[in-house]
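URGENT: need a sanity check before tomorrow's submission.

F., can you look over the M14 family metallopeptidase record below? I want to be sure the sequence and structure line up before it goes out.
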Amino acid sequence: MKTVTHSLLSPVPGTRRELVSLHHGEPGRGPKVYIQASLHADEVPGMLVAHHLRGALAALEAAGRLLGEVVLVPAANPIGIGQWVLRNYQGRFELGSGENFNRNYADLTEAVLAAVGEQLGADAQQNVALVRGALRDAAAALPVATELESLRKTLLALAIDADVVLDLHCDGEAVLHLYTTPATWPTAELLARCIRAEVSLLAERSGGDPFDEACSMVWPALAAKLGADKPLPSSCMAATIELRGEADVSHARAEADAEGIVQFLIACGAVSTEARPLPMPALRRAPTPLSGSIPLVAPHGGMIVFLQPPGTEVQAGEPLVDLIDPISGAVTTLNSPVTGLFFARDLRRFAVAGMTLGKVAGEQALRQGKLLSA
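Structure tokens as predicted:
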């Protein structure tokens, strides 16, 4: 294992932050897998899963079972990890700009076309190799003017040429679920099975340019511009894994989640199989569109009383939340907007008007535009 330290652009004299990546296996030998934890730095479960993964990967490397390279970034946000304000952790938004740390990643499609578009031909695998090289060059050439842009560039450069990208997050309170794109589903289904995801939410463009889509969507975008005479298969399966809720931080769960990820690495050919491979778990729920994930929005402020826990199958119109005005005593009951799985809810118990309190995954695509929360 090799440890690499990446210095970020210093925002002011006398300060400097660093990102650390752990590199296991042999680059170029086989598939490249990139895994990062807690890009939203206040979402701790991913960091603990990464802690257990580093031990598992070290053991696999020592046993000669890594068939390629696995890059692990155990704490992907050195900026957010230090943002404490009045004794509260603020790891989702960069305080200087207000920008979400998991938005606004660069689309490298046009840069790659300009660099190698004329060199691509009828050999699909040769095209993949040329595009991967151009993606590395394009990421390395991204301009940066702020510390946040420096972080985005560093993370994208580490991941952009990977076959598999896993971005470890969590929700407020939730069942384990993942986000990915329809084009990646054949491989992502293996991931959903191995980590025992309760919900898989699919969207080609969720809005906001999150990290995982910057890594995966460049491939179908390039293929659409190249045409049939220059075949380019989608060559990056990227997914955001939501490791339940913010308080779900335990060794037992993190170890099980790390084992599920290792089982996925075996299934996708990044790790050699054991003499007795584990049976593939069943898919717990068929994938549903992200545009079918419908939020419960508070019409006014007040105390939040949830009437159902995450993981409950609900019918449209079923009561899910009581919102209570502590001054007037008025109670507003919010019902499920669709039939589906009540899979996530906010950790807080007091709302302001317009706040999203929970989400129900339905089967019908009902929303348009930006599909991700702030």
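My own read: The longest strand covers residues 237-245. The chain has eight helices and 20 strands. If you see anything odd, call me.
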